[in-house]
Amino acid sequence: MKKIISLLFILIFIISISGCEKEQKSTAVSNVETVKVAFDDSPSESGIILADKLGFFAKQGIKIEYVKFNSGADELSAMASNQVDVSRGIINAGLFNAWNSGIDIKLVADGGHNIPGKGYFQIALKKGLGQKVKDFKDLKGLRIAIASTGSINELFVQKALEKGGLTDKDITFVVVDSFPDMLTAVANGSADAAMEIEPLITKGVEENILEWWKDPDEYIKGEEISVLMYSPNFSKNKDLGNRFMIAYLQGVRAYNDAFITGNKDQDKIISILTKYTFVNTPETFKKMKPPGLDPNGHVLKQGVLNDLNWYMSKGMVKKAPDVNKFVDDSYVENALKVLGPYKSP
What we know:
The chain is an alpha/beta fold. Helix content is 46%, strand content 16%. The strands form 3 sheets. Strands 7-6-8-5-9 form a 5-stranded mixed β-sheet, sandwiched between helices. The protein starts with a helix and ends in a 6-residue tail after the last helix.
């Protein structure tokens, strides 16, 4: 009898504990926080897209609200005024100047870089020009299409010119503010080359408009093309920022598993990305040179310093911010403690 009573007490205790656990789990799930993310539909957004659509953000109690902008300037303004919490964008002079004016935006993770030998952002030549433009010095006299001056687009071209002992006075910049329109500019003879991005280079090659040239690692090695940024207010919420980063790196790792270090779940990953990026066919995803996204998240700090030095040399940034404060590794370091270092499949 005593054994039966004891067993009943144990059963009641287990049921009670189980009920408490369910209640706690229910509370955790219901306490969802919305994070506003500045978003474009480029393949470099794959980390955020996959973290969302594979449920990693949801597991961290985060709901993503995507916010689109007409320009990078509008996006930076929204970040500076805390209208959005997270952004993935290029490092431009405006970003350094915002920091210098006291706007505490943080660069927290890699948002896109060229993989050596597989550069997704590079100079591409008009079809047939490769026979003439074999070295950097041969860029002299060319009309090169870029999306904007005073930005990373111009920086890449300038570094290639330096390799050939040239300056921007030796070529002509043709500003075309849309990457797809650069193909048209080259095709109709308005430009001889383009500072272009994937998968548009692959598209241009297939349509006999462009041809591949030198890998960007030959003229601008270790460049940080884009970074993940936290707004001033969001960076103060350490717990939420840490949870966001854990989920983001899980999304980035799923991307790397599928495209960079293997082909794990590639068809599944492609089916998601073709819905939410402008690369809308599986075949293109498999052919294109993919953006590099560091599965361990680290910002290429030397690349940021290179950008800063160039902007200062051009007079676009007057004062050098402390890059060690501008770049905040703490969110990535915390995520790595939780997830461990990346291991390829």
